[in-house]
Amino acid sequence: MTDQGFPVEEIDTSRPHPARMYDYFLGGRDNYEVDREAAHGILEVAPEVPASARANRDFLGRAVRFLAESGIRQIIDIGTGIPTSPNTHELAHAVSPEVRVAYVDNDPIVATHAGARLTGTGNTGFFLGDMREPRTILDHPTIGKLIDFDEPVALMLVSVLHFVTDAEDPAGMIAAYRDALPPGSLLVLSHATGDFHQDHVGEVLEIYKRATASLTARSHAEVKALFDGFELLDPGLVQVPLWRPDGPPPEPSEVRRISVYGGVGRKL
Amino acid sequence: MVLGKRLQDLREQAGLNYEEAGRALDVTHATIRRMEKAEVGLKLPYVEKLLTTYGITSAEEIGGFLALAREANRPGWWHSFRDVLPDWFSAFVSLEGEAAVIRAYEPHYVPGLLQTPDYARAVLRAGMPHAAPEEIDRLVTLRIERQALLRRREAPPLLWVVMDETVLRRRIGGRAVMRDQIDALMDATEQVNVRLQVIPFAAGPHPAMYGPFHIFRFHLQEIPDIAYAESLVGGVYFDERDDVSTFLEALDRMCAQAAPAQSTKAILDGMRKEI
Fold this sequence. Notes:
The complex is a heterodimer of chains A (268) and B (275).
Chain A lengths: L17 H8 L7 H13 L3 H21 L4 E5 L9 H8 L4 E6 L2 H10 L6 E5 L5 H5 L2 H6 L7 E5 L11 H11 L5 E7 L8 H9 L10 H6 L4 E3 L5 E2 L12 H4 L4 E8 L1
Parallel strand pairs in A: 1-2, 1-4, 2-3, 4-5
Antiparallel strand pairs in A: 5-8, 6-8, 7-8
Helix pairs in contact in A: 1-2, 2-9, 3-4
Chain B lengths: L1 H12 L4 H8 L3 H8 L7 H10 L5 H15 L13 H12 E8 L10 H11 L5 H14 L11 E7 H5 L5 H14 L5 E6 L13 E6 L7 E6 L2 E5 L2 H17 L6 H11 L1
Parallel strand pairs in B: 1-2, 2-3
Antiparallel strand pairs in B: 1-4, 4-5, 5-6
């Protein structure tokens, strides 16, 4: 065991890792040869993936600004990934420096980056945890320090639920978090879909099968069902560029092959 | 150095060799090579001509590059130390000053940017047994002046270091010097742009037991990460992506094996009591 609480053998850098592949798609440098190879495999069959990754990142940016402007002052961001500036707390602090952010990720390498790069101020914290175990996350001391469950909380599950298989019961998992949150709390969720890529979605999923986490693409109806117990805010669950765009609505050609749905729901 | 590398990338993307690039400027291939290796200052008209030769047409991009070149041509503050500073190390000081993120693995001693003057003197004396006391004094001064970058107002870099437990166990400069040094490290853990991790003996073997290295990352997205490894007589710089990735992966694994940064202060406090 290391002092971070997991066995050293669990640090697997021999297989491609979705967070490092995502980093590569976003033009980052925190990826290794094996990740870039897998990423190139995906680019060959699905050249639009980097555009989807960027659109997802932009969605995160607009959603966090919306949260902060709506008065949310505490955020749990699960599936942090490799830090990409601007990060959740930077975006939130641009609106209000009082927003507290707890970041969670389950990968030891991601954890080292997030721990080093996202925790420079007193109102952010990071810990290593698995979203599939809501109780261990909700009861973590870092959550205890940063989050007050008597006030509305934003729960962010951005591009992570597609790494939860149906057998692992994503709906049950979200319900466990939802039940811990007071009414008025918000859920920010984005999710990969194959709805716009029936031609090659199978090949992409095949590549992710060889990575450390396999990918389950879900349909619009399946993703919408994950908002059970939340009221979807305008404009509902849409391809991410269409969620409250900053400027003029994006051209249909830009949106056509963006394979990520995103939405924000309010707990009833 | 960083701009030279960028010029090299642009030349390669344009599919030109040194001779072809030289011909556009009416200079020899060696001049181009020296510009790319930052062995000569960058003459602005040359740079502008090269950029257009390489197909860069955006006035904004050219203007930005020239501004950086103008900046790079200003002699660095460390030039006044060139009597004691070997060339291969002045490149290091230059990279350090330009970096947005400085990551390092230090198995043997406290990294230079966090050393106290007395500790620095003891390390330098051990490393340069024939040096005159005045030379050591100059080098100590240089090292302390380098540290100003961590406290500068404008975009101070993030310094993220993994230190081996050995660093804290090996007594350098005697008990009092060591205690002061550990106090200084404890203060450093409070700085927002410093992350210190200790990799304890108990963490077992790791991928870089052969020795120390640095990785520099820059604000400009186009400039690649640069890794640096040092020996007694010189330093080697790596900027090929696969080489740098190998360093990056080794360091990432070590960071994951090491105690998390939040616990560093307590570890240092424990070690200090043992001295």
